[in-house]
Amino acid sequence: MKSLFSIFFLLYSIVSFSQLTAAQYQVKSLEANSENGDFGTTFYGKDRIVFSSSRKNGISNKTWEGNDQPFLDLYIGNVEADGEITRVRPFSNAVNSKYHDAMVAFSPDLSQIYFTSNNYMDGKVRSSNLKIFRANVGTSGSRTNVQTLTINNDKFSTGHPFVSKDGKKLYYISDMPGGKGGTDIYVVAINNGHYGAPKNLGPTVNSKYKEYSPYVDGDILYFSSNKPGGQGGFDIYMTKLDGSIEEPINLGKPMNSKGDDISFIINKQTQRGYFSSNRRGGKGDDDIYSFKQLTVNPICDQVIQGVIVDAKTDQPLPLGFAAIYNSKGEKVRRIETLKDGEFFFKVKCGEQYKIGGDKYGYFENDTTFVTSKENAYQNIIRLRLKEKEFIEVNNKEILNVKSIEFELNKADIAKSSYENLAKVVRLMEKFPEMIIQFGAHTDARGGDGYNMWLSQKRASETVRYLIGLGADPRRITGKGYGETKLVNECSNGVKCSEIEHQQNRRTEFVVIKK
Fold first, then answer.
1. Higher-scoring residue by pLDDT: 44, 65
2. How far apart are CA 56 and CA 129, in angstroms?
3. Average pLDDT across the chain, whole number
4. What pLDDT score was predicted for residue 119?
5. Regarding the domain delimited by 4-13+17-293, which CATH topology (the fold level of the hierarchy) does it fall under?
6. Angle at 31 between CA 26 and CA 35, to 5 degrees
7. CATH: 3.40.50.620, 3.30.1330.60, 3.40.710.10, 3.10.310.30. Which one for 391-513?
8. With left for phi above 0 and alpha for psi between -120 and 50, is residue 68 left, alpha or beta?
């Protein structure tokens, strides 16, 4: 018998293969299939499926002259762990009409339904073309506020709607003028119930033949086409929405057959999904098949969104570095973290990676993990770095303490440095034999004598403050160096930037004895 879903749309209206090959799948027919047509599955929440069927005992008691079967109605069933669909029952008498109702989609919150149906309003058929309608669906299944979309037109057909996960885009097919072939896949923006201008997905997706049943998983588009080069009839293909793959990938056997194979959907978490086919060996006209994806999708990718934080304060660490290593331990990329300590990497699905973090004055840390098979999954990583207690600068061991800040041209310690000085006391308590010398340095601007005097006053004031916090006065001394130990070429008369002068305006807690 001729494919019902082909009749449903078709009555109204030499390719090179990519080097990439599809994943491997395990396919089985469902017990829920009837002797008539069953096709066009759509997820309804996490554990239910809505599909179209012309099985007997539907809403309409009339048969369609196209195949002498009842008009299509919508049914709902429960999804079992093995992929079977159980407890099949009418989706809702209020949603099903006396005409064809098929190929539906739902808004992310399940409050709205998009469905393909005959071009009718107010109970009357307006033309032979098909249209996409939108309606509100109540908790009891009631359908209200049925509206024809602005993308519809009496002169051509629209159908096979799919709503993106964020509810901001509607993908569909149409034989509108100006397309690439018989039916093309289009996308429009959804904005508070309003729809943007239709955009053809272009020649990397659409051909001069017919494209059907778009389904978007992250950045991967699945669709069916009857273009030459497939297994026969309509085959299921996948490609990237950004057009980065020149030739769509045929999913191959057993997903495709000599018959028509359409309406691919997949649960990213379970890697199980459904498609429809009129292949030989089925129970009825068109049947629903479940599948299990066994291997990683070759164009599956994910994102690592990470942040480097201080292990003690849990605060983000800016100006650090994050590196990613492959399963062989080879460094793939190293980047500087953003001001909020964040970093991003694109990774492949189902592979092992190591992410390392480092920052000056901190011990390195890393984590190893294996990405899932879920396309477009966002891996969240939080790398905690432990701050070092000592660092080496110019062959000197010094305390890992930020430079102490003072009021302009004064020896008064800025409040922003109080916590840094408290850290010095904690380190002295941790290492009771340690002796340190605090050194204060200035840049070369100003008189040499004045700079020496100011730095010595700052050194003396810092030591006095530390003793006031409980530091042993026998284990700490202070010395002002003025501009006598510059770390760059910015001496008297040399023009330098403010950053270069700042490098010379520094303080150091040098370890004399540990």
1. 44
2. 25
3. 89
4. 57
5. Neuraminidase (2.120.10)
6. 115
7. 3.30.1330.60
8. left
Nearest to residue 152, comparing CAs of 168, 172, 132?
132
Nearest-angstrom CA–CA distance, 143 and 135 = 6
Q: Cis peptide leading into 70, omega within 30 of 0?
A: no
Going from the C-alpha of 190 to that of each of 119, 159, 219, 420, the distances in angstroms are 22, 16, 18, 53
Separation between Cα atoms, residue 439 and residue 507, nearest integer Å: 6
Distance CA 383, CA 358 (A): 9
pLDDT at 66 over 70: no
The residue behind tokens 């006598």 is 484
Q: Does domain 301-385 have CATH number 2.40.128.110?
A: no
DSSP string for residues in 28-46: EE-TT--SS-EEEEEE-SS
Segments making up each domain of the chain, as ranges: 4-13+17-293, 301-385, 391-513
- pTM for this model (two decimals): 0.77
Per-residue confidence (pLDDT) for residue 90, from 0 to 100? 86
CA atoms within a 13 Å half-sphere pointing along the CA-CB vector of 440: 23
Cite the beta strand spans of 149-286 per DSSP E. 158-163, 169-174, 184-191, 194-195, 199-200, 211-217, 220-225, 235-240, 249-250, 261-267, 272-277
What is the SS3 assignment for 386? coil
Q: Are 182 and 13 in contact (CB under 8 A)?
A: yes
User: In this structure, are strands 435-441 and 476-482 parallel, antiparallel, or unpaired?
Assistant: parallel
Question: CA torsion 108→112→116→117, rounded to 10°?
Answer: 170
Pair of tokens at residue 154: 């009496």
Q: Between 411 and 61, where is the model more confident?
A: 411
3-state secondary structure 138-167: CCCCCEEEEEECCCCECCECEEEEEECCCC
Whether 486 and 501 have beta carbons less than 8 Å apart is answered as: no
Q: d(Cα 4, Cα 39) in Å, to the nearest integer?
A: 9
Q: pLDDT digits over 324-381, tens only?
A: 999 999 999 999 998 999 999 999 999 999 999 999 999 999 999 999 999 999 999 9
